[in-house]
Amino acid sequence: MNISRWLSLGMIAGLSFYLVIASPAPAYAMHIMEGFLPLKWAVFWWIVFLPCFWLGFRSLNRIVKEQPELKLLLALAGAFTFVLSALKLPSVTGSCSHPTGTGLGTILFGPWVMSVLGALVLLFQALLLAHGGLTTLGANAVSMAVVGPLVAYGVYWLVLKTTHKQKVAIFLAAALADLATYGVTSLQLALAFPAPVGGVLASFLKFGGIFMITQIPLALSEGLLTVLVWNWLEAYSPDELRMLNLLNLGSISPVTTKDA
Amino acid sequence: MKNQPSWTNWILVLGVISLAIVPLVVAKGAEFSGADGQAEAAINEIHPDYETWFNPIFEPASGEIESLLFATQAGIGAGIIGYVIGWYRGRKETGTDATPSPVKNKNPH
Q1: Distances (CA, A) of A217 to A15, A152, A153, B91
Q2: Among A193, A218, A227, A243, which would you mutate to test the B interface (most chain B Cβ atoms within 10 Å of its Cβ)?
Q3: What are the transmembrane regions (chain A) (predicted)?
Q4: Could you say which of B53, B99, B100 has the minimum Cβ distance to residue A39?
Q5: Which of A106, A222, A228, B73 has minimal CB crowding within 10 Å?
Q6: Mean pLDDT across the stretch A94-99?
Q7: CA A156-A160-A161 angle, 5° bins
Q8: A180-195, pLDDT tens digit by residue?
Q9: Per-residue pLDDT at A2 exceeds 70
Q10: Could you give phi then psi for residue A166, rounded to 5 degrees?
């Protein structure tokens, strides 16, 4: 017990130390700002987003109708994104960015629900905080509320099936969804603003390189926070997790399972 | 074995805190700016002639107001999370188990 505890602490310390090595460089935007996508791209991403929003809306409706007792858990998933995307955290690159918090809701409710919840968060930030924007909402929603969750969903099931370690799967799903979101943002900016020399690829490397390095520690934080909330859910609302068939999946130590 | 989750949770919290503190130490001289302005610069660098064609409908009057609104956002979210987890915990401890329908009145007040 004690040894494994020190091992975990050591791992965290080692990880932090590793992050120290990344050299400081300026970072760019979090969401794409209002008016910063040319009209045709703004429209394009809105068109991509709308069907996903519809799928999410349907999925949300079905949950509320068929399992109304899960409403509280839905609120929790929405609130988690709400908090995390308000946390502007410092990064090793010497600038700030924020996590996305879409992994938790995706693992709980599937890949589409977050397209609605994430879009609501983006709308709030666009209207009240001048952070992101209405014209760029489609693009930002595709990166944060659609692609991020899809990545989370894929990673979660892939890791769960191969390693049978649910916590590891949750950590990786949340962290990689976070990174993927910023990868898509970089791509969106690169497509809209290809470099005069080197084109889209050069732009992507420029935006992406800076985005992703800034985001690495935040993605790790997001993974840890998601597992933290998951631990609480496991401890206090096993009924809900059981309803969603999410309890004790691939749990390795039967001692800790408290299934009825 | 029983309090294993609680110490794992502390380690998770510790990890998040150190991930937030480490950058402050490492990148000591940095500005830790909110980056929106820098993105503008990056785009201008690639496409100097690009002009924004739409402006935010509402902009917070100052950095202070903006951070107030961000704090409000975080506060609302954290409040909901605390409420939901607390509700679940209360339900579990008062033993209103099985199907999670609205609380049966088992609290003392």
Answers
A1: 9, 17, 21, 36
A2: A193
A3: 39-57, 69-87, 107-130, 137-159, 179-204
A4: B53
A5: A228
A6: 83
A7: 120
A8: 999 999 899 999 989 8
A9: no
A10: -65, -40
Element of type H or E holding A90: strand A89-90
Rounded-to-10 torsion of CA A113, A73, A218, B20:
160
Encoded tokens for A157: 């099931």
Cβ-Cβ contacts under 8 Å for A118 (sequence gap 6 or more): A81, A100, A102, A141, A144, A145, A146, A148, A149
Indicate yes or no: CB of B23 within 8 angstroms of CB of A90. yes
Contacts 24+ apart (CB under 8 A), A36-39: A36/A133, A36/A136, A36/B39, A36/B40, A36/B43, A36/B52, A37/A135, A37/A136, A37/A139, A37/A188, A37/A192, A38/A192, A38/B50, A38/B53, A39/A135, A39/B53
Give per-residue pLDDT as tens, B35-92: 555 566 677 788 877 877 888 878 887 878 888 888 899 999 999 999 999 999 999 8
Site of tokens 């693992």: A107
| A135-to-A33, A46, A138 alpha-carbon distances in Å | 9, 8, 7
The confidence score (pLDDT) of residue A57 equals 96
The pair of structure tokens assigned to B53 is 């064609």
Whole-number Cα distances in Å, A54 to A46, A77, A152, B77, B82: 12, 19, 20, 24, 30
pLDDT mean over A78-103: 88
Q: What share of chain B is helix, strand, coil (3-state, %, to 5)?
A: 60, 0, 40
pLDDT band at A16 (very low <50, low <70, confident <90, very high): low
ipTM of the assembly? 0.78
Closest chain A C-alpha to B36 CA, distance in angstroms: 5
Distance, C-alpha A237 to centroid of its chain: 23
CA distance A69 to A237: 12
Distance CA A232, CA A183 (A): 30
Q: Which residue has the tokens 């609605």?
A: A116
- pLDDT, residue B34, reads 52
- Measured from the Cβ of residue A210, the count of other Cβ atoms closer than 10 Å reads 22
Contacts of B69 in chain A (CB under 8 A): 128-129
